[in-house]
Specification:
The chain is of the alpha+beta class and about 375 residues long. The chain has 8 helices and 21 strands.
């Protein structure tokens, strides 16, 4: 079956909460950077009347969708932020209890992703930590494995370093939080199918440091950084309801990868499995058997790792292609690392292909 690749950013704020860019401004930034879709996720408010295609024949079109970032404002300390997509109704009233909220999202037919699970404080700036606190909870669709702005907080240890790094973000960003990556692997190892996404958490915030005033991390920069690529089973048509359903179904099933496009475009990455009578891509399942082979194809030469439950199973350097014959069941995901500005960066992070036990043990 052919699949169709589309790139979007799934965590974006506007003046309806604590963002500064209008929906039109954000749409223009998305068109400038070549995104196919953007999901607005303002805090505890689902904004209506903004969904649809924006653009024209000369510039192209971007699909705007309305989601929500829900959390309990009364909780102290803060935590348990959840990105909600596709629920089509306001669910912030359930935020007092994470299990209750996740159950309400399921009942509404929506998707729920735990936002910035390992978010840390920036004490000198008065910026609190907003991590995932109630980790005994299940019933969520997935994790925001790479949140660009949350991760960047880790590169602000003091005022002097922060002033340097905010003007040179490409020099310091290496990849997602190692803690979150390890958490994802731990959840996958338990048998859960947890979908990983990567997002900007864009606000377009203007800050002042003495006489300097600067929009740190404008929308167009962040839309050129960490995004989620989804694979739909049918091409998008330009019809809102149909296309929205295609994108959300791909996210639900984990037919997606995270791309960090600063070192180079990640479009065209593929990760698949082939067996004697079956095939699978990211998010899908294939049964273990003789000859089941995993294959990763990168858009350019890089270091490609095959990872199962946190363990590197296979690795190739300076290549565009990695293949591996599978002998053990489990969730297999791909990491692609590429040099940029003198350091190796995580370039691509795939969702797993799930290899189920076969009818008999391989010898």
């Amino acid at each position: 079956m052919p699949y169709f690749e589309y790139t979007g950013n799934l965590h974006v704020h506007t003046p309806y909460s604590d963002g500064e860019g209008s929906h039109e401004h954000i749409a223009q930034a998305a068109l400038l950077t070549g995104l196919d879709f953007v999901i607005f996720t303002d805090h505890n408010v689902r904004v209506g009347g903004v969904e649809g295609y924006y653009g024209d024949d000369s510039r192209g079109y971007v699909l705007l969708l309305s989601g929500e970032e829900i959390h309990d404002r009364a909780r102290n300390p803060q935590g348990n932020h959840v990105l909600v997509f596709g629920a089509e109704t306001e669910l912030a009233g359930y935020a007092h209890s994470l299990p209750t909220l996740l159950s309400a999202v399921q009942q509404a037919g929506g998707l729920s992703f735990i936002a910035h699970p390992d978010d840390n404080a920036v004490e000198w700036l008065g910026e609190p930590a907003i991590p995932w606190l109630d980790r005994y909870t299940d019933g969520f669709t997935g994790l925001e494995v790479w949140n660009y702005m949350s991760r960047f907080k880790d590169y602000l240890p003091d005022r002097r370093t922060a002033l340097r790094n905010v003007f040179r973000p490409d020099d310091v960003m290496i990849g997602p939080s190692p803690e979150t990556l390890a958490l994802w692997d731990e959840l996958l190892e338990t048998g859960l199918q947890v979908v990983g996404i990567g997002c900007a958490d864009a606000h377009g915030t203007r800050v002042s440091l003495g006489p300097l005033s600067h929009v740190i991390f404008p929308y167009d920069f962040l839309f050129s950084s960490v995004n989620t690529h989804v694979f739909t089973k049918s091409a998008l048509t330009g019809e809102l309801d149909y296309d929205k359903a295609q994108i959300y179904q791909a996210l639900k099933e984990g037919r997606a990868f995270i791309g960090y496009d600063i070192p180079g475009s990640t479009r065209g990455f593929r990760f698949s499995a082939q067996g004697q009578n079956a095939t699978a891509i990211m998010g899908e399942t294939i049964r273990l058997g003789h000859g089941v082979t995993l294959q990763a194809l990168a858009p350019a030469r890089a270091r490609i790792r095959l990872v199962r439950c946190g363990e590197i199973i296979a690795e190739e350097k300076q290549t565009e292609n990695l293949t591996h014959v599978v002998r053990d069941p489990g969730p297999y995901r791909i990491e692609v690392w590429r040099p940029y500005h003198g350091r190796e960066r995580m370039w691509i992070l795939s969702n797993p292909i799930y290899v189920e036990p076969g009818p008999g043990r391989l010898r």
